[in-house]
Amino acid sequence: MSVNTLATQRVGEKIWTIIVAAGSGARFGSPKQFEMINERRVVDWAVETARVASDGVIVVLPQAQAQREGGVVGGATRSASVRSGLAAVPTDATIICVHDAARPFASEFLFHEVVDAVCNGADGAVPGLPVVDTIKFISIENIVISTPDRSRLVAVQTPQAFRAKILRAAHASNPESTDDSSLVEAQGGRIVVVNGDPLNRKLTTPEDMNWARAVTRGEV
Ligand code: CTP
Ligand code: MG
Fold first, then answer.
1. Is the pLDDT of residue 42 over 60?
2. What is each CA distance from 114 to 16, 124, 155, 168, 172, in whole angstroms?
3. Which CATH fold would you assign to the domain 11-127+156-215?
4. Domain ranges within the chain, ordered by starting residue
5. Separation of 89 CA from ligand 2 center, angstroms?
6. Which residues line ligand 1 (CB under 6 A)?
7. Whole-model pTM above 0.90?
């Protein structure tokens, strides 16, 4: 019954995913998206799941890799890379997901959760996890300005799903941000938070890569 409802909701939707994999991995020490986890590159883990969950996938890569394996050439920042991907998404796409190549363990279920929220009327949807630390908002001089109520904070992940025309409009003036939902928010868009997944950790440092390899060995 619920499967039918899901299928009905998606009638007429064309779902495309942009995988951003054009970063330089400064904090890791090299482009981490091309490291191997169990015979497969980090980026390929993300692409494989996105292909199952979407009608089409655009992979945004550094120039050398894009030339070698096909794909779109990225930009100097994450937002610029998303825009390179957006330019390659067919105009008949109705929902666009943006996903970090650096999150190899995003599940198909998580893609479905964010897409369903958009099918149900949200402008965008993001996975969010409760924050365990107390978070301080500080000045550039490291002086605490305020302490937001932790129970109202979430740490957000990708994949993030959007109504296609709303995401395109949010990027129209070439803005910069660390994620796409904040650009849609800035335009007054309504973003829904779905349950994030601790396994969908972003690989930022060598320690994160050790964790990911341990996961695949069943050690975590
Ligand atoms: N990304 C991208 N183009 C950029 C910068 C980032 O496609 N110019 C991608 C990364 O490849 C990654 C995702 O955006 O999949 C999230 O970025 P992040 O984890 O910050 O990766 P890097 O920017 O590569 O790492 P760092 O910030 O440490 O340099
Ligand atoms: Mg970065």
1. yes
2. 13, 8, 15, 18, 23
3. Spore Coat Polysaccharide Biosynthesis Protein SpsA; Chain A (3.90.550)
4. 11-127+156-215
5. 23
6. 20-28, 33, 60, 74-78, 81, 100-102, 202, 204
7. yes
